[in-house]
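[step 3/7] inverse_fold.run input=structure_tokens len=59
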């Protein structure tokens, strides 16, 4: 992982309308997290298109 990469990503969990940060997984290839309310999973691959977008939405 590059040093200048962020360690977390802001995610808007649309399922429950909650904004939360999710962190890089062990492999360092994606941001992974769960909605704190309904535990819906979200995974955002690092390096994929749109990775500069700081906001993603879980459904
Ligand atoms: Zn939810």
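[step 3/7] decode complete -> sequence:
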């Amino acid at each position: 992982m590059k040093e200048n990469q962020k360690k977390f990503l802001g995610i808007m969990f649309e399922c429950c309308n909650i904004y939360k940060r999710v962190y890089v997984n062990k492999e360092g290839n994606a941001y992974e997290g769960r909605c704190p309310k309904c535990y819906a999973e979200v995974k955002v691959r690092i390096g994929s298109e749109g990775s500069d977008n700081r906001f993603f939405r879980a459904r």
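[step 4/7] annotate
The two ends are 27 Å apart (CA to CA).
The longest strand covers residues 18-24.
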